[in-house]
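User: What would this chain look like folded?
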Amino acid sequence: MDLSVILLSVVVILFFANVYSNQKRHIHKNLPPGPKPLPIVGNMHMIDMKQPYKSFMELSKEYGTVLTIHFGMAKVIVLCGYDTVKDALLNHGEEFSNRPKLPIFSKTTDGNGLFFSNGESWKAMRRFTLSTLGDYGMGKKAIEDKISEEAKYLVQTLNSYGGKPFDILTVLNAAVANIIISILLGHRFNYDDPIILRLIGMINENIQLMSSRAVMLYNVIPTLLDLLPGPHQKLFENMWHLQNFIRETFTKQKKNLDVNDQSNLIDAFLVNQQEGKSESSEYFHNDNLIALLNDLFAAGMETTTTTMRWAILLMMKYPEIQTIANSSLNMTTLLLTCLLVTDSACLTLFCVQPSLYLLSATCQPAKYLLPVTCQPAKYLLSAICQPAKYLLPVICQPAKYLLPVTCQTAKYLMSATCQPPSTC
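Assistant: Here's the prediction, encoded as structure tokens.
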């Protein structure tokens, strides 16, 4: 046998032995309980990657509401149950505020933007985003006018199909995207415009790819998978195309920028960039702008579209509820802002995947001392599906949220201890 093959075999054996011994070694002695991990893969063989929340639910029955799961060689602390999640979010909010440095996002954003940045950069971008979105109508009547106008375009497009079957995803995506685009870029696109169709296509494809096994595995062994083809490479390609589009867009706007006539979020960012303050050079740079706009594109497009698609599907499935909801909306204009959220919509919007946050300091929820290096995953589905807090939480019953209208307000049914789920 070739000497090089023998040496390589010895190195591989020693590597696996070292990994296994490190996993067995109690570096952090007070970590929550959890299933025993295998070398390299950890507990990934026990997790249903398409529906991980079901695996977490089953494991929590055996190991408790705070448990340790090994995703490859990374330790993730999963928090289950209403009381545990509430304790983490309310009583330890500051400690749970940071985001994890996942390789897939580190490569595409390099710690910039809003969703996966940390520290002072995240605070600066969050402060700027909330302030600027408010300046351009978010939460005010100005955005209502834009939504009403866009709704007319949407209805016209739906009527144009003459009652024939069609795929509603693209039309809804374009309508919703135009709202956030009007704030970011200052104008809207026609629904058949190739630019918006390409943007929507890449964002939707990336969201699907994010839940693929290859992308999840990339977060475990990024160095190796960088050398191999797969869905993760397509995700990177889409991200680079999106970033190039954003870069070209703000480069054009920068040439015609008028400090005294700012018309959208890009203008506001560029003005901050030119102020000459220390914060301007440190946080208001082009890479942060590209990542921020990409975050807002995805956030302002996918979640609202998903809500509308679930609403349409559930209204089709429960026509009697559609009649009640329609009567409510027709009875008074005060009900035009009423939102009917059903059980299944809640499960989809809030609970498809657990939210990962990186600890900014040591934290001690439920008697366990969690080190900074661990990634806590707050399992929201377990919180809003707890029978002690919610009535029949896993059964879709739209009627229990909206009663037949006998007055000028919609009435909702909740248990006495119920606290509606929220998202930031």
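DSSP finds 17 helices and four strands in the chain. If you want, I can go into more detail on any region.
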